[in-house]
Specification:
9-stranded antiparallel sheet, Aminopeptidase, Alpha-Beta Plaits, binds zinc ion, 13 helices, alpha+beta
């Protein structure tokens, strides 16, 4: 199959993408790929250096005669998200990805493909040895550890890049140009709890079957939050029986809307009586959910106690605090139609011996509104008597509609593909914004080829679109560096 990939156009891009796919590069474990990138740059006659964080910068000399043109940086992250199908034997630390072509798309067998952002990286590397692309001096900036926390970009050396223009390649829809993104910050809430002996039956109450989704890009879909639905149910059950929480847990990563949550509790109620109430509460839950989530379930079953129950007071405090922590869209943009401006995700709850720990993740394209929602979450935690740790987070990339890159991108894309591109701001974090906060005079734009289902084993990238975007990138460099 590798032969077929290497025959695809543009061959230089696919050559590098193929080589990248053979070197394991999960987030935080990019060293082998970074080393390979250095040696490829070396062989291509380009210089490469590293900042203290480990980000790489390759300098590609200008096409002869264009050395005086303004320098442009092309940026991609080195790491990839590692997801595989559950029944697949695959070790992301050691195994090369198995690429294949299906219906005009490249994908990997049973794993993520890493086209996010490997295809952008391959385009940057291809420019090292592509005589057909006429450009000025280039810097290819390869950042570390984007997927787990934008860490390479957050620790990027200041006064290092020489370019005043940067192209971020981490956008996944051809014809969409991103010119701004939200900033964000997480909050940890530590609520102390007390436990006491309580003699009752023990039950497990579970919310399952919600869709979940990305806490930025999909927060506008009104997807159910399993933790909130679980707490609604517990509060209703408290009307008819004594409930003493033993354990409550739900959610996963900070950027995922919780799909599942469960509580283990002791109660003076009986299983048949509680199960009857739970049936009714399940119907009410489903009435709160959209048509997409009607498979959601609320189920109670008998369980055994693995810890002493919380006091009545602690139980009520935990449930009320979780219910009061906001979740979902907070404000919509007035300037940009349909753009979520501010949102927050009640992402995760877990129980320890002496405390319940909650994680929330908030975003806004307005730094003041981000502070407001963080302040609101902190106030809820403190009202409940919790210790609150608000993280520093990362700043938004505020769109510059007067950017000198918008007009040439629009004109060139329309000329080449006979359709007008879209310029938009997204409600998610992109490295472009963080890098811009370190280099305030940098003019940044982001674009890339079609990539579907990134971060899942169905990830795939469209071959024609890779060709289109690479051709566009080369022509765009010529236009903004040489013909401006
Ligand atoms: Zn990415």
């Amino acid at each position: 199959m590798s032969d077929e990939i290497l025959k695809l156009n543009p061959q230089l891009v696919w050559k590098y993408f193929y080589q990248i796919s053979k070197i394991p590069h999960p987030s935080g474990k990019e060293a082998a790929l970074a080393e390979a990138v250095c040696s490829w740059a070396d062989s291509a006659g380009c210089t490469v250096d590293k900042d203290r964080a480990g980000n790489l910068r390759i300098k590609i000399p200008a096409t002869e005669g264009h050395e005086k043109a303004p320098s442009v940086a092309i940026q991609a992250h080195l790491d990839m998200v590692c997801e595989k199908n559950t029944d697949t034997q695959f070790n992301f630390d050691t195994d090369p990805l198995q690429l294949r072509i299906v219906d005009g798309w490249v994908m990997a067998t049973d794993t993520t493909l890493g086209a996010d952002n490997g295809i952008g990286l391959a385009m940057g590397l291809a420019l090292m040895e592509d005589p057909s692309c006429i450009h000025g001096p280039l810097e290819v900036l390869c950042t570390l550890d984007e997927e787990t926390g934008l860490n390479g970009a957050l620790n990027l050396a200041p006064s290092w890049l020489e370019s005043n223009i940067m192209i971020n390649t981490d956008t996944e829809d051809e014809g969409l140009f991103i010119i701004g993104c939200a900033g964000g910050a997480d909050t940890d809430i530590y609520l102390p709890i007390e436990r006491e002996a309580y003699d009752g039956n023990v039950f497990r109450l579970t919310v399952k079957g919600l869709k979940g989704g990305h806490s930025g890009m999909e927060i506008n879909q009104n997807l159910g939050n399993a933790i909130h639905h679980l707490c609604n149910a517990i509060e209703n059950l408290q009307l008819e029986a004594e409930i003493r929480l033993i354990d409550i847990r739900g959610g996963d990563k900070h950027n995922a809307i919780p799909r599942e949550a469960e509580a283990v509790f002791a109660s003076d109620g009986s299983l048949p009586a509680l199960a009857l109430s739970v049936k009714g509460l399940e119907i009410i839950m489903c009435k709160c959910l959209t048509a997409k989530e009607q498979d959601a379930s609320l189920v109670i079953s008998a369980a055994s106690a693995e810890a002493t129950p919380m006091t009545a007071d602690s139980t009520t405090k935990v449930v009320r605090m979780l219910k009061a922590i906001p979740h979902g869209v907070v404000t919509m943009s007035i300037d940009i139609p349909l753009l979520v401006e501010t949102s927050t995700n009640l992402a995760n709850v877990r129980t320890k011996e002496n405390e319940v720990i909650v994680l929330t993740s908030s975003r806004s394209s307005n730094p003041e509104l981000l502070n407001n929602i963080l302040g609101q979450i902190s106030a809820v935690g403190k009202l409940a008597g919790a210790r609150v740790n608000t993280h520093t987070g990362y700043p938004p990339w505020e769109p510059d509609f007067d950017s000198a890159l918008i007009a040439p991108a629009k004109q060139l894309y329309s000329e080449m593909f006979n359709k007008s591109p879209e310029f938009n701001v997204i409600h998610a974090g992109l490295e472009g914004g963080i890098i811009k906060s370190r280099y305030p005079s940098l003019d940044v734009i982001s674009f890339g080829p079609n990539i579907e289902s990134p971060h899942s084993p169905s990830e795939r990238t469209e071959i024609q679109s890779v060709e289109n975007i690479y051709r566009f990138l080369c022509a765009f460099l010529t236009r903004i560096q040489i013909n401006s």
